[in-house]
Amino acid sequence: MKTKIYFSLFLITFILFSCNKKSSEEETNSITFTEIGKGALYGNGAEGIPQSNLVITNNTDWQNLMNQMNSVNNVTDNFTETNIDFSVYEIIAIFLDVKGNGWEVSITNITEDNANIYVDKSEKEYDNSVITQPFHIIKIPKSNKPVVFN
User: Fold this and answer.
1) Which end of the chain is less enclosed by CB atoms within 10 A, N or C?
2) Would the pLDDT of 94 be above 60?
3) Is pLDDT larger for residue 55 or for residue 43?
C-alpha cells in the first residue's frame, strides 16, 4: 500500500512539473548566414538611407539599395557578392543613423523558431570624429517567416 502511495505522489509531482513548462517557450535553431558587406557610408547622409532594418527578397529592391549606397562612393565594390539568387536566399540589411563619431554595427546571431526569424545585432562606438553611417548586410536561406530585429 505504501508503495502505491509513494508511486502516486511521484507520478503527480512528475506531471505537475512537466506541465509547468510555458507553452509559449519554443525551441530556437541557429541560422547560418553569409556576410555580403559591412562598413560605413561616408556621404554624411547624402545617400538618403534612413536608419533601417531591411529584409530584401527580390532583385529589384536589391539593385535599388546598391544604387542608393553607391550614389556618393562605390561602396558595393567591396561586397563579397552582388548577384543574389532570390529563389534561394534573402538579404538582411541593418543601417544605423548617420553618426558624428565612428561606429560599427554587427549582426551577431540569427535564430528561428516555429513562427519567426530573430536577428541580434551589436553596436560599437569608436573614439574618432569621422561622420559615418554604419551598415551590415548578410544573406540567409529564403524563408516565409517574419523577421524580428532585436
Assistant:
1) N
2) yes
3) 55
Kindly state whether residue 10 falls inside one of the protein's structural domains. no
pLDDT tens-place string over residues 120-139:
999 998 877 788 999 999 99
In a domain, 126, yes or no: yes
Mean pLDDT of the chain: 87
Please return the burial class of 62, using the count of CB atoms within 10 Å of its CB with bins 0-12, 13-18 and 19+: buried
Instruction: State the residue range of the domain holding 84.
Output: 28-149
Fill in the DSSP letter of residue 87.
T
SS3 80: coil
CB contact set of 4 (below 8 Å; sequence gap of 6+)? none
pTM (two decimals): 0.81
- The DSSP H or E segment spanning 3 is helix 2-19
**Alpha carbon distance 97, 51 (integer Å):** 5
Among candidate residues 96, 64, 60, 84, the one with its CA nearest the CA of residue 142: 84
> Which of 13, 33, 19, 10 minimizes the C-alpha distance to 119?
33
Q: Quick one: CA dihedral 110, 102, 135, 140, positive or negative?
A: negative
Looking at the 3D structure of the chain, how many domains does it have? 1
